[in-house]
Design goal:
Elements (H helix, E strand, L loop, with lengths): L3 H12 L4 H8 L3 H8 L24 E6 L8 E4 L2 H12 L3
Antiparallel strand pairs: 1-2
Helix pairs in contact: 2-3
This protein binds zinc ion.
Zinc ion (ZN) binds next to helix 4.
Length: 97
């Protein structure tokens, strides 16, 4: 794995007009790595993945007696409303059509 410092040096050299071959020779690194950095595809250059899945905090709190959840495939006894079913429903809503 390349250090962030090396990635930054590659970016600076490319911005200064160096070719991929020139950067490869100068920094003693692979063409593929330089190519990926030149095209913004190195892992340091990609935006961080943001987890937008629903959290338990956003759902109504379960209360009352434990009952069999009518829709859970594992059929656990839970307090209603069932958190697992709530999260599953939110995940279905969040799926792109
Ligand atoms: Zn359930």
């Amino acid at each position: 794995m390349l250090s962030r410092e090396i990635v930054d040096r590659v970016i600076v050299l490319l911005a200064a007009g160096a070719s991929i071959n020139q950067v490869t020779a100068r920094l003693h690194m692979g063409r593929r790595s330089v190519f990926r950095i030149a095209h913004g595809q190195h892992s340091y250059q990609r935006p961080a993945v943001v987890d937008e899945s629903p959290t338990v905090d956003e759902l109504p709190a379960p209360a009352g007696a434990y009952v069999w959840c009518p829709t859970c495939p594992t059929r656990h006894k839970v307090k209603m409303p069932c958190l697992a079913c709530g999260l599953r429903a939110r995940a279905e809503e969040a799926k792109p059509a």
